[in-house]
Structures are given as C-alpha cells and as structure tokens.
C-alpha cells in the first residue's frame, strides 16, 4: 500500500513539475509566448502609435471639375476634401467593365462635364482600395493597381460614370453599377464653386492655381530615436550585436544575420535582413499590409503618413510611406533625408527598412501664413526650368530644415518629374 502511495505521489510531483515548466518557458503573466521565431514580428520598443491600413490610404488630392472648363483642387485635411472623401467611402461600386483610354475624348470630358478626380499618385492595389471604399470583389478587377478614380456625369444622361484608371498601360475600368446619383455628384462638385480657381497648364496634364495659395510656415520641436531604441526594436536579441564603424562615419550594428546602419550626419537608419526566408505567396496588396504590420510592431508611426508607392519589382515589392503635415507632404531631399519610410519585401517578409531617426513633437511654433505664387508668376517660374525636366504634376509641399529651434517646415511648390523624383520650385 505504501509503495502505491509513493508511486502516486511521485507521479503527481512529476506532473506538477512539467506543468510549472510549461508556464515558465512558454507563458509569462500578462504576456504571450516568449518562445518566438527569430523572424516573427515582436512587439518591441514603443516609439509611436500603431496605424491601420485604412488611415494610410487616401488620395493625394481631389480635382473638382465644375463644368464650363472651370476647376479647383482639394488637398488632404481641408474641410471639403474630408466631406467628399467621407461621402464616397460609403458608396458602392460593382460590375466592372474593362475599356481602353483611346476610346474617350478626355479633354472634352474634363472641360464640359461635372465630376471629381481622385488622384492616388503611383498606384494603389485594388485589394487595398477595398479597405477604404465599398468595392465589390470582381475577379477581372482585383489584380489591378489604380492611380486615379474619376466620377462624372454627362448632361442629359441619368447615370453617373465611375472610372478606375489602371497603372498598367491604357486600361480603364468602369463600374457599371455605382451607388451615386447625378444629384450626388452635383452636390459634391458644388463644394468647389467658391474655392481657388485652377486651370490646366497648356501642353501638360497638371493644374495650377490662378490665385495665391495660402500655407502655414512653422517650426516644431524635435527629438531623436537612439541607436539603442532601434536595436531593441529590430533585433531579436540586441545583447549579441556588435558595432562596426565605417570610413564615412556611419556605424553598422549586426547580429551576423541582420544589420542596422546608422548615418549620424543624416540621422537616417537602414535595416536589412537578407537572410529572412520567404514566408509564401504574396501580392502587392498583401505586401503593403505586411509592411504596415512591420512598422506597427517595430516602432510605430511618428506622425501622419500616406501610402505613396507600392511597386512590384520581379520577386520584390517596394513600399513607401510619405509623411504629411497639415495635409501637405514633407519632402525628402538629397541634403536632408526626412519625411518618408521605405520598405522592401520578398514574398511578404520585410528584407529592408529605412527611416529617419528624427521625430517631431506635437506643438507648433512660429506659425506664419505664406502665400505661394500663382497664375502668370507661377508660369514664369515653370518656364525657367530646363526642357529636359518633364513635369507630370505640381503640388504644394513642405521643405524641411533643422535649426536651433527644431524642424522648420517651409511652404514650397514642388514639381514631380517623369522619373518620379521631386524638384522644389524656388
């Protein structure tokens, strides 16, 4: 009898030990598993709030066609931009038909019809647009990336035309069914009646204001993320990293697999993980979501950002997020790297990540209204640019400088060139 009791007691002790070992190894109070793959996204250093995909995907501008060859433009953050954008988010688009651009007289349509152009820039995968708009799944349409959306009505016709412009070739898709009436379009367009008038620059495809454009010049105090913060954020075990100093003054921190290069002069970091194994099949839309998840789990977002690029390049996807302030982009320049986050993914796994170590604090200082040139004065400035510069767009932006007070944001006109680069119009 004693032997049976000893055996039972021993069994209970062994089982208790195994249970305790399980909780010690795999669980900690108030946390998840601590045994994680080295390639899993681990919530680490908190340097900013997380962001949802739907808060990073929005048009860079809205061009409002008023009819009679009159136009205006709304930018993010402006009251009418938000009104139009929020109303369109709740509308449904379905039953897509593929068409070619050559079948439309775009100049006549632009001049005579009332409508709204939503410009997304380089292109947004349809699967991501579905997160911010009511786009019914469609096998013909879902694999596309869209750089522009155009909603318009033709006088005498009872329906609204909803066009989605693909980044691939001269292809456009029309939603045969759109939850919009002609009256809806006219009401939205009427928001622009008393706004700054714009005209299309002759021989181009971009619009320019005919009245001075108001922006706010300002300064903001800044902080800087430390190397230690970035190491804790990006390395599985920061304690095993070693430091290598380069001849150009930059420093590299590596754990033999991943590397973090810090340019102290530019306050810029580049993280690479070339050994990251592919996790499976991917698509540009899924890769963008993986990029957002990566930033959420490795530091967060130090301000307002917009998805500005999603480029599928063979087996890799390049993703770029542009920083905005007061609804205008903060330019990244050769002299001062700031205002963007760049990520490269391979089959859904981040292999490269770049960002500034500087961040701005919330309070604005030394605010001043600045009037950017318009009309003939602006045309003269454009005419002085070399003929080799093929301009595809013109937009108001902030040119950043660092001074003794922090970050100064100077309002400027910026032109986008055919090669995708930005040129400041001094």
TrEMBL record:
**Which residues does the UniProt record annotate as the domain Regulatory protein YycH?**
3-417
Q: Which CDD domains does the UniProt entry name for this protein?
A: YycH_N
Instruction: State the name under which the record lists this protein.
Output: Two-component signal transduction system YycFG, regulatory protein YycH
Q: Which organism is it from?
A: Paenibacillus uliginis N3/975
* Pfam families the UniProt entry points to: YycH
- Where is the signal peptide, in residue numbers? none
Q: What InterPro entries is this protein classified in?
A: YycH (IPR009996), YycH/YycI_2 (IPR042274)
